[in-house]
Amino acid sequence: MFENFFADPVTLFKGALAGLVFGFLLQKGGVTRYRVILGQFLLKNFTVIKVMLTAIVVGGVGIYAMRAMGLEVALHIKNAALLGNVLGGLIFGVGMAILGFCPGTGVAAMADGARHAIPGVLGMLVGAALYAEAYPFLKSEILGIGDFGKATLDSVTGLSPWWFIALTAVIAIVGFVGLERWEKRRA
Amino acid sequence: MIKILRKDRWSPYLVGTGIGMLSWVTFAWMNKTLGVSTTMVRAAGAMESVVAKSHVESNAYFVKYLGTALEPKPVFEWQFALVVMLFFGALLAAKLAGSKFEEQVPGLWAWRFGSSKWIRYLGAFLGGVILLFGARMAGGCTSGHGISGALQLAVSSWAFFLSMIVGGAITAFIIFGKGGRDHV
Where are the domains of chain A? Predict the structure, then answer.
């Protein structure tokens, strides 16, 4: 299992580059801070949703535009095993509200002075190992329920992906304008 | 340029745009998607194998990501390198801004559970266990599903994203209540 421990150097270089930029951005955005994450869940500080929705819209527009221009950009869709997605998402939310970080921001937070992110990341490793033990059971009992395969919003509705990208963009822009006004009024 | 890099905080819209553009690069150039939680599985499997190699090799979930004894897959691959350098990217950003931030017990937590460092560390540990268990059940985390998956319009990712917000908000309000808002 562990004979070829490392992938090839080019692959590793690319991953390292992406990680460096990603970590840099997360810290600059302030989402490596516990109070920002909990502020989001307590609906007081909306930094997390601003960062995420902007990334989704910008990323989505670019990737679907590249595909529309005929560039070879493959999609990487994860299985819609809906019971697992929803149950897993709820459990994830519970853990994130207790820890105050998600996996990526937790690793970044260790570098940004949050000592308590260290036991948090250790917990993540234990959580991964526990999941591996539970996997055979979950696979047979839960992960097969509501399985639609690699479904996307456009594939299940038969509409163009651009409708959904446009809808997300409109929700984001209207939401952001509203949020900024509300934040200014409150301040 | 240097001045921008030294700035303490960037606008969340700028940061979001940067992450979105980074995903263009990972898709188009690297044929990969930003993600973190699978690396926790690989790391956990590699560490567990030091003490229980045959147990790890017979576990279907570890085999999925690490391969079998006959056909091994690399432990330290693209995403693993990403996660390691994620740490250094955040470190670089904090150092450039001259950040002296250090936190053992966050204010909100201390207000609710007291200022004991060990109680907070235990809480953070348990939170991490729950978090990653959920991520693997869902098939991804905030990066893999929340950003990379949602931007591809994946049904699975939007289902995860909305559930995660609901689960997190309910938990935060149960633990801290409305009064917690004065401490974040």
Answer: 9-186
Interface subset of A 115-174, CB within 8 angstroms of B: 115-117, 119-136, 138-139, 142-143, 148, 150-154, 156, 161, 164-165
Please give the residue of chain A at the shortest CA–CA distance from B92.
Answer: A24
Tokens representing residue B1 in the block: 């340029």
Distance of CA B129 to the CA centre of its chain: 12
Predicted TM-score (pTM) of this structure = 0.96
What would the pLDDT profile of A41-58 be if each residue is shown by its tens digit? 999 999 999 999 999 999
Whether B116 and B168 map to the same domain: the answer is yes
Residue B1 has what pLDDT?
76
DSSP assignment of B104-124, as one string? SS-HHHHHHH-S-HHHHHHHH
- Total number of residues shown for chain B: 184
Question: Residues near A168 by Cβ (< 8 Å), separated by ≥ 6?
Answer: A53, A56, A57, A60
Domain containing B157 equals 103-184
Judging contacts by C-beta atoms under 8 Å, the chain B residues touching residue A2 are 46, 49, 66, 72, 75
Question: Which residue of chain B comes nearest to A142, CA vs CA?
Answer: B137
Tally of domains within chain B: 2
Q: Residue B169 pLDDT more than 70? A: yes
Same domain, B5 and B69: yes
Q: Are B184 and A43 in contact (CB under 8 A)?
A: no
Q: Is the domain of B115 the same as that of B81?
A: no
Q: Which residue of B9, B29, B125 to mutate against A (max A Cβ within 10 Å)?
A: B125
What's the ipTM? 0.97
- The minimum CA-CA distance between A155 and chain B, rounded to whole Å, is 9
pLDDT per residue over B80-110, tens digit each?
999 999 999 999 999 999 999 999 999 999 9
Domain co-membership, B89 together with B111: no
% of chain A at pLDDT higher than 70:
98
